[in-house]
Structure formats: C-alpha cells, structure tokens
Amino acid sequence: MVAHARLLHFAAMSQPDRTPTPSNQFSFSRLKAFAQCPLRYRYRYLEGMREAFQTIEAHLGKVVHDVLEWLYLGRSNGGDPGLDEALQRFDERWETRWSDEVAVVRVDDQPEVYVQRGREMVASFCRTVFAVDRSETLALEQRLNARLAPDVMFTGFADRVGKTEGGKLFVVDYKTSAREGDGSDFSEGLQAPLYASCVMERHGGESCLAGYHYLRLGTTRWQEVSRERGQQLRARFLALAREAIVAQEFPARPGPLCAWCGFNRICPEAVVPDHFSGGQTG
Ligand code: SF4
What we know:
Blueprint: H1 11-14, E1 25-27, H2 28-36, H3 38-46, E2 54-55, H4 56-76, H5 83-97, E3 102-103, H6 111-132, E4 136-149, E5 152-163, E6 169-175, H7 185-189, H8 191-203, E7 207-214, E8 219-226, H9 227-246
Parallel strand pairs: 1-5, 2-3, 6-7
Antiparallel strand pairs: 4-5, 5-6, 7-8
Helix pairs in contact: 2-3, 4-5, 4-6, 5-6, 8-9
The chain binds iron/sulfur cluster (SF4).
C-alpha cells in the first residue's frame, strides 16, 4: 500500500541535530546550494541544520536510483534481474523509504502519480538501456574524492562507473528531472565531467566518458573528458569553492525553490505560494 502522509512533523527542526559539514569538504550539491541561496547554504552546511522535510521528488529519485543499482549489482553477481522483479523492488523500496518527513510540495499532487512515474522510468530503463547494455560495471555508488588544494577536497558519489564493450572508461549519472540541463556549471556542466576526472585518477586511462541519463526522457548525453579537461574543471570547481569559503554574508535568495527548501518555515524571507505549500507548516 502506498503511504499517504502529506505533511510532516518538525521535531527535527525544533531540536536540530546540528552536524556542520567539514569546512574542507566540498560536494557538487554544496556548491550548488551556495549558488542558489547562500542562506540555505549557511543553514545546511555551516550551521549543520537538517532540512525539515524531504520532497517527494527527492524520495522518488532515491528509490529509482536504488532500483538501478540493484539491477546492475544483480547482473554483476551473475544474476539476470528482470522487469517484474525491478518493479517489485521499486514498490518495496518506495514503502520502506517513506516516512512522515516526505512532503508533497504541490498541494494538488497525489503520491500515486509519483509512484506511477517511477514505475514508468524503471520499466522504460529495463526495456531499453538495461536490456541491451553489455558494458562492464566497475563500481556502483562509488565515493570519489580529489584534493583540489590543501584546504579544499572535492567529494561526490558516482552512480555507475564502468567500461564499454570496447574498453572505454565511463561514468554515468542518472537524472529523474523532467528536462535536460543546459550545460551551465550547476545544470549538468560540472558534475559528471568532474566525476570522470576522479574516475581516471582511480581507474587509470587518458580519457573517460561522462554521461547523464535522463530517465523520464529516455535520453543519454555523453561527453569525452580528457585529463587536461579534467584539470580545467577542477580549477573551475576550486574557484567556486573559494567564493563560498571567503563569503562573509549569506543573503537569502527567495524564489521558486523556496517551496522545496526544508528551511522555509524558519527562513524570514521564504516565498511559498499557497499551491506549493505542502512542504510548509506554521
Ligand atoms: S526559504 Fe528560500 S530564501 Fe529561505 S533559505 Fe530556503 S531557498 Fe533560501
């Protein structure tokens, strides 16, 4: 049965479990948060506050990623996981990962719509990409690190690292968004290519394919990242990290994302229209 909890409790917010991120650890998500709203960045990474809810979109993304990882793990272990089992896995993970902290931000949305969307993504992936994929899996959900400067470490998780049938190294990131990114720094410009740079360091090779697979669209965008290109991207990421490190002020940047921000209850400048208020109480 699909869980229907729509709203959330804010116990975590009233007694926050504060765990600031180590000052030298910079993930792609951390810098993206700084670029989108410095105040949200301060709450989350400097003060170590937990967001009061997880959006249903994030819940869906985690469950779908879990199923894809399970598919490739099964194949790597000599199994032959199929569509029926994958959908069963999706339903089971949807339930077990669900909690009162999952929020349906668009108040008119029903959780069942997201279940259906997730099942469609899994089914489409199984029937197309997974059915014909003969590449070798080297790692799933692999933690990647790169020291960019004595005080700055890049860190992230690659969804899948592998080698093509022709022996070419690749890293792929799965996206559940409705649209492809535009290639700017925080819209698929930096993330996978940076992972590719780290993958080369770990697995060798002079170049690595970096890909985004858009599960809702059924498309994949690849780019080849050389070691030289990897160094350029690391320098770009380091420059962005420096901007966050030297920042003295962290202004709120209210906008459409406020509805999906888990600090919108305590933020003095949050702007959340009524029809997007499912993730906000009080
Ligand atoms: S509610 Fe909006 S302005 Fe406030 S921290 Fe979140 S994203 Fe920033």
